[in-house]
From TrEMBL:
It comes from Methanocella arvoryzae (strain DSM 22066 / NBRC 105507 / MRE50). It comes from the Archaea. Residues 2-316 form the Isopropylmalate dehydrogenase-like domain. The keyword Transferase does not apply. One of its GO terms (molecular function) is isocitrate dehydrogenase (NAD+) activity. Belongs to the isocitrate and isopropylmalate dehydrogenases family. The keyword Cell inner membrane does not apply. It is an enzyme of class 1 (oxidoreductase). The lineage of its organism: Archaea, Methanobacteriati, Methanobacteriota, Stenosarchaea group, Methanomicrobia. Transmembrane segments: none annotated. The gene is leuB-2. This is 2-isopropylmalate dehydrogenase. It holds the Pfam family Iso_dh. GO terms for biological process: isocitrate metabolic process; tricarboxylic acid cycle.
């Protein structure tokens, strides 16, 4: 198995190596190919990701990704959006599961359509007016619905939309409902503002959420607060051939280089990689190792602790080795 490792910028360079060490223990026969991409490379070389870099990534089975700093005005397209498009990673999967320090008890997953909506970059700026085109297709809506309905152990699907205002969301809602019916999955539909309210008021009512690109982006950051931090939130970008795994958080340049970045989300993203690779027992071991480390109080400052990134890495690896 070949895994492309793209740490990116900022704290990505600090947390991805921790996840890499975990994968070396869990997948000792894997081959890792390191690819430098991002703003730091752009500043130094004038290129953030070359065509050769993309070919290297395509030669691998999956990607372990960090975070990218994308300052406004830079003349290059988002690297993560490029990878999602080039690798056809149409399903963004973000699980939210309580850990020992979570303020709420939750266990649900958001399936975010990953290929269209406002993120397609179809925009026109003329004078004092800007127009952005929102694209929603039946094909993309159906395939993200199939991905969500295929979640192991799914209990109920919640289709999130804004169809009382947007005709495009009527199409999304209907496409997802038809898929759920065909796959015999119980479902409901809910307006996005009502969903945002209920995520705060009664998050335990949710099992599996499927929604459009923009709504999924916003709701998943809200959901991260329920488990305690963006630093505890992993994600997967999955297609039919490739997959990319990354923490939900950004590059956090304000704390980069201080040795205090929280690696839990990156490590849990590595756990999702293991599950995708057909190693669910190792994925569970990684989750347990993270839970034990948190329960032991080995935490970075963002979680109220005093430990460094490397101290958290040591504790995770120690717990993981004791499990396997």
């Amino acid at each position: 198995m070949k895994i492309a490792v793209l740490p990116g910028d900022g704290i990505g360079r600090e947390v991805v190596p921790v996840a890499h060490e975990v994968l070396k223990v869990a997948l000792p026969d894997a081959e890792f190919l390191h690819v430098e991409v991002g703003n730091e490379r752009y500043v130094r070389e004038g290129v953030s990701m070359s065509p050769a870099d993309l070919e290297t990534v395509k030669a691998c089975d999956c990607v372990l990704f960090g975070a990218i700093t994308s300052p406004p005005g830079k003349p290059y397209r988002s690297i993560i959006l490029t990878l999602r498009k080039e690798l056809d990673l149409y399903a963004n999967i973000r699980p939210f599961r309580s850990c020992p320090i979570s303020p709420r008890k939750v266990n649900f997953t958001i399936y975010r359509e990953n290929s269209e909506d406002l993120y397609m970059g179809i925009e026109e700026i003329t004078g004092d007016e800007a127009r952005s085109v929102r694209v929603i297709t039946r094909k993309a809506s159906e395939r993200i619905a199939r991905a969500a309905c295929s979640k192991p152990g799914i209990g109920k699907l919640t289709i999130v939309h804004k169809s009382n205002v947007l005709k495009a969301d009527e199409l999304f809602k209907d496409a997802c409902a038809q898929v759920a019916k065909s796959m015999n999955v119980p479902f409901e539909d809910m307006l996005v503002d009502t969903t945002a309210y209920n995520l705060v008021r009664a998050p335990e009512k949710f099992d599996t959420i499927v929604t459009t690109n923009m709504f999924g982006d916003i709701l998943s950051d809200e959901a991260a607060a329920l488990i305690g931090s963006l630093g505890l939130s992993p994600s997967a970008n999955v297609g039919d051939r490739y997959a990319l795994f990354e923490p939900v958080h950004g590059s956090a340049p304000d704390i980069a280089g201080k040795g205090i970045a929280n690696p839990f989300a990156a490590v849990l993203s590595a756990g999702m990689l293991l599950d995708w690779a057909g190693r669910p027992e190792m994925a569970r071991a990684v989750q347990t190792a993270v839970d034990r480390t948190i329960d032991e109080g080995v935490l970075t400052p963002d979680l109220g602790g005093r430990n460094t990134t490397l101290q958290v890495q040591s504790a995770i690896l120690k717990n993981l080795e004791s499990i396997i």
